[in-house]
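Supplementary notes (optional reading)

For those who missed the lab, this is the record we used. Protein: Copper resistance protein CopB. Length: 277 residues.
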Amino acid sequence: MMKSGMNLTLLALAALPLVSTWAQDPHAGHGGGPAPADARDPHAYSGGFTLDEGPYALPGPRQLRLADEHLFGGVLVDRLERVDAGAGHHWAYDTRAWIGRDYHRAVLKAEGDIEAGRLEESSTELLWSRALSSFWNTEFGVRYDTGHGPDQGWLALGVSGLAPYWFEVDATAYLGEQGQTALALEAEYELLLTQRLVLQPRVELSAYGKDDGARGQGRGLSELVAGARLRYEIDRQFAPYVGLEWAAALGNTADMVRAEGESTQEGRWVAGVRFWF
């Protein structure tokens, strides 16, 4: 016990010079204190040189630009396929194109069905997309539908992006003519079986705010489409695929389909290509 008390006393005596020094200059021993008289201004990091003046200036227009100052664009044909439902077949497409910068861009989405060489129905959206966070975008614009019943225009507002666990999600609310409202939700996931073989499950759900018999839109949940496509990426920009899909009409929409003497459920095989540039 006496030895322990003696050690503490020695440590206290050894620390006295350090405490005295710190009291006179709190920055002593920590690299602080006033800067030398000949120190360079820390804000003048370029030494007076700029992009336009000095020995390192490049001729012509400005040479260095940040990534979000460039204009980018792309086209993705996500689905271009033949759909075989047993009783017959048709062609379907789902594509999007965009142009803009990192935070703001214009987006064009188009999907539809072609039967007997004629456009049977289609949906086209022109949207303005703005980055909401690192993985999510907000989208606002217009949509125009043709095909089943009279043509219809919509205002669109939605979000799209990458959810946790790498699910790609697209959710959009619509306001149409005569106060009709709608909600569309799409989700898909890419499972890499190998470096080139990719399995892509996909689910699509739609709902409407009120009945519209002329267009086959029933109030509430309207249609569910679920399926999976297996593609082989010959390269990252071109991939043929095959798949199986199941579609079902729901709620009041199913009642309208039955009234027309048609089936409310349908299984179909698909085969097509996916490419982008």
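If you only remember one thing from this example: The longest strand covers residues 118-131.
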